[in-house]
Amino acid sequence: MKAWIASIPGWKSKFARRLDALIVRADPKVHKAVKWNSPFYGSELGGWYASMHCFTRYIKVSFFRGASLVDAKGLLEGKGQYVRHIKVRSAADIDRTAFAALLRQAIR
Fold it and tell me: What is the pLDDT of residues 22-62, one digit of tens each?
């Protein structure tokens, strides 16, 4: 995972480290893997709950059961049956409290 984050060009590496740290803070026992050139985050009991993917202008954090999450701040985007995501373009896009609340729900 550290190698994947280090390989990201420019400003996105810094934000990927921040996002990874927020996920670890919310789930200290997180299971991590890099699949299809994207880091996946999961729990022992519930399987994979989130992933990150790096695009040219943003980092997308996807929640695999995002449609069932309560998103009080309206951070999540997407219209699929299950998955919702957040696009991180700058530090202003990361509301730590709201992101942590979404993570805690996803982990359960």
Answer: 999 999 999 999 999 899 999 877 799 999 999 999 999 99
Q: Tens digits of per-residue pLDDT, 76-100?
A: 999 999 999 999 888 777 888 999 9
Q: Give Cβ neighbours of residue 86 (< 8 Å, ≥ 6 apart).
A: 60, 61, 75, 76, 77, 93, 99, 102
Whole-prediction pTM value?
0.90
Who contacts 1 (Cβ-Cβ below 8 Å, separation ≥6)?
Answer: 20, 32, 33, 34, 39
The domains found in the chain, sorted by start residue, are 2-107 (3.90.1150.200)
At 41 the three-state DSSP class reads strand
